[in-house]
Hints:
This protein is α+β, with helices and mostly antiparallel strands. It is 39% helix and 38% strand. It has one domain. The protein has a four-stranded antiparallel β-sheet with strand order 1-4-2-3, with helices on one face. Strand 2 and strand 3 form a beta hairpin.
Amino acid sequence: MAELNEEFKVRGEELLKKTKELIKEGNIRKITIKDKEGKEILSFPLTLGVIGAVIAPVLAAVGAVAALVTECTISVERK
C-alpha cells in the first residue's frame, strides 16, 4: 500500500486541535511537527491500538509546543 504524505500549516493555538483531529481519523502512521523554518520540533508514530492513556502524554507535549510557537507545519504520514 502506498504511503501518502500531507502537510498542514497551522498557528500555534490551532496545533493541538488539528493534532487531535488527525489522531481521530485513525489512518495516520506518523505525525511530525516542524517550526516555521522547517526544523523538526516533535515527531511521534501512531500505531494500531494507540489510545487514551498512551496518547495523553503526546498531546501534553503538543500543547507545550503550541504555547511556544506562532506558526508551524504538521507533516502527516498516512497509511
